[in-house]
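Researcher: We plan to redesign the surface later, but first we want a full-length starting point. Tokens attached.
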């Protein structure tokens, strides 16, 4: 299995789907990265551990869709969570930031059958099809 370690200096840009559909990626260290583009780790089914989430302010559409992550803690500076960002994951417990997220996409937790507890923190809106 492969462990992806991104540099501590923030990557200025990496493309959509940069690591998508990589069945051998087991864990990820995000380093200094602050934004995850669309489909970054989409369908990387073996990923069950992600470190460095405390710096992420933007989660692109479907960025962790179809991974095996079970727990996720956001920092209070998150500005955007894209549509289906955590769809089809094994997340069981989720807590959104205390400060309101500026943009919440649709179907964020689509088909998350293990999700049994969610704390919406400071968010005042539950988007369309959040749990479809």
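Model: Full-length starting sequence:
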């Amino acid at each position: 299995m492969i462990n992806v370690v991104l540099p501590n200096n923030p990557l200025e840009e990496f493309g959509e789907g940069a690591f998508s559909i990589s069945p051998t990626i087991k864990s990820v260290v995000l380093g200094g990265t602050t934004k995850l583009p669309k489909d970054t780790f989409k369908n990387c089914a073996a990923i069950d551990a992600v470190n460095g989430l405390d710096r992420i302010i933007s989660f692109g559409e479907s960025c962790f869709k179809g991974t095996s992550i079970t727990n996720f803690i956001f920092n209070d500076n998150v500005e955007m969570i894209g549509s289906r960002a955590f769809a089809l994951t094994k997340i069981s417990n989720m807590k959104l930031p205390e400060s309101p997220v500026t943009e919440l996409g649709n179907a964020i937790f689509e088909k998350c059958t293990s999700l049994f507890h969610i704390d919406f923190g400071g968010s005042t809106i539950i988007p369309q099809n959040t749990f479809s």
